[in-house]
Every structure is written in structure tokens, then in C-alpha cells.
Amino acid sequence: MRDDHKGFTLLELVIAMTILTVIVMIGSTAAVGQIGRNRIKRHETEAQAVYGAVVVYMDEATSRGTLDELTLYGDIMAYPLGDEKNKLYNLVKGMCPKDAKITKMSVDRKKTKVTAIVYKVGDCEVEIRNGRVDR
């Protein structure tokens, strides 16, 4: 009888599958970390764009003479950015998630200029101070 089996033994297959499983687990752990970092970076970019929209809105409202703290709250902080009732909606439409919201804002009263905002999406909060991400 000839022993010409041209295949793998069960032990060789188990070892190969174990090695592949370990490689996939290491790769997926690294990918999950990168996805989380990319999500945070995306929210930071969105927050900077929202900060710019707030600056534009405040400049326009100041030139019209319709800017006060109550108006600011009612116009841009009372509703999520994806809601059409929010006065920034047309400026940030399609730029950030519908549930994104400005939760805090700091304004320099003398210059009527926004100095900081806190942008929140889900469980992620990003603070922008003078146009830069505050880490």
C-alpha cells in the first residue's frame, strides 16, 4: 500500500487556524482603536466648523442689532443643530449629525464675540476656544 496523501493533517489545520485567529484579533484591536481616534477627530472638525458658523451668525446679528443672551440661547442653543428651528441649521446643514448640540458658549460682551463653545454629539464633547480645539 502506498501512503501518498497530499493534504494537511487535522493538527496542521488546527495550528494554522489558531495562528490566523491570533493575527486577526491583533489586527482588529488596532483597527478599533483607530476607528475611535478617527471618530474623535471627525467631531473636532465638526466642532470647529460649528464654531465658525457661530462667529458668522453673531457678526450678522450684531450688524442687525438683534443680538442678546436670550436670543443666542433661543436661536442656537435651545435646539440641536440638525433641527430647522436652530438658526445655524442652514450654515451647518449636512456637516454634523442631527443630534449634535452646542451645550455651552462663552461670549466676550465688550467685543460681542464668541470665545468658546462646547459641542456635544452623543457621549463625545469637544471644547473650542478661540477657534482651536481645547484638549
What report would you give on this structure?
Strand 1 (101-108) and strand 2 (113-121) form a beta hairpin. The chain has helices at residues 10-64, 69-77, 89-92, and strands spanning 101-108, 113-121, 124-129, 132-133. The chain has 135 residues and is an alpha+beta fold. It contains three helices and four strands, in the order αααββββ. The model has no long low-confidence stretch (mean pLDDT 88). The chain has one domain (10-133).
Proportion of helical residues = 40-55%
Let me know the number of strands: 4
> What is the alpha-carbon Rg in Å?
26 Å
Task: Order the strands across the largest sheet as they lie in space.
Answer: 1-2-3-4
Strand content: 15-25%
Question: Can you describe this structure in just a few lines?
Answer:
This protein has 135 residues and is an alpha+beta fold.
Give the secondary structure arrangement, pairings included:
Layout lengths: L9 H55 L4 H9 L11 H4 L8 E8 L4 E9 L2 E6 L2 E2 L2
Antiparallel strand pairs: 1-2, 2-3, 3-4
Features:
135 residues, single chain, alpha+beta, 4 strands
